[in-house]
Amino acid sequence: MRIMAAVARTAGQPLELESCELDAPQRGEVRVRVEACGICHTDLVARDQYWPVPLPAVLGHEGVGIVEALGEGVTQFAVGDRVLMSFGACGHCGSCREGQLGYCQQAPVFQVLAQREDGSSPISCRGERVSGHFFRQSSFASHAIASTVNLVKLEADLPPQLMAPLACGVLTGAGAVLESLQAEKGCAIAVVGCGAVGLSAIMAAKIAGCEPIVAVDVNPQRLALAEELGASVTLNSAEQPLKKALKKLGGMHYVVDTTGITDVMREAFSGLRSRGTLLCVGVSKPGSELSLDMASLLMQGKTVRGCIEGDALPADFVPRLIQYYRQGELPLEKLVTSYPFSAINQAIEDAKRGRVVKAVLSMQQSM
Questions:
Q1: 223 and 340 in a common domain
Q2: Fewest 10 Å CB contacts: which of 13, 80, 175, 245?
Q3: Is this prediction's pTM over 0.85?
Q4: Number of domains present in the structure of the chain
């Protein structure tokens, strides 16, 4: 069928809205009419080719929409269901069988090569193959083919524009605190970087009962929003050394770094108390290396680890996040700015420049 998609053709250049061809869903897949899609930092690094997705490509991996067609063997979803499309996983490798879908052994095929396990893609443009299975969805489009492995059914009253960030950004930030760290009440936590992921971590830290909750950024407006969302202390790291500031607060049990900047991560590590944990969730440039004070690592029993998608299982964790949203503990409306699909390049630019916290495309608004 013919669809409209935003195609990345040249590194760092605006996406091109094009009429493309979408194949029918294969076994274990569905066709989704996309209603909304968040713009994530990973989409930007893929467009700019720090993340080497083969171009041309249709990106987008925070999609919400309505199921229109079922592939062979699909029984757990029906035509007309509203679904959230989360990150790609095969569902059958060792990691997936252990419930660690974020560490799927086929993840590079979906998240980097943007193709199916067999190497195919459901999208083509003017007879040209397009990398069109990004995170098993490629939802910068009017319609997408998605694997049922990464689908979560949504209730009809939930607003698509607010649900889309639950697919990755909010999932990552909240999952980092509630799933990866399993943060305990009364423990000190610092969140470095107050974008959508970081602010989600702050809201999750408030839910967990952490104290103090320290928000770190260089943007005064982001720090003010972090305070509104639950931070008890705000630090502008452009005005004071992070290590010194965290130590003055007694050191942190946990630090969640969303920046991926190694100099910042090193400072954050130094701000941990004994047996504290630095959790790294930000995407660094390829080849980045983190050097640490090994004496501090050893003698103080500190931990440094990475985390993908908040170590969350979407089918279990997304419903928890929705419950928090309904209870007013996860005010997603304070993060989201909506754009029509036709304004995707403006939305990307605003997101990249930090003018908005979370840009979300309203796909049908422009169709």
A1: no
A2: 80
A3: yes
A4: 2
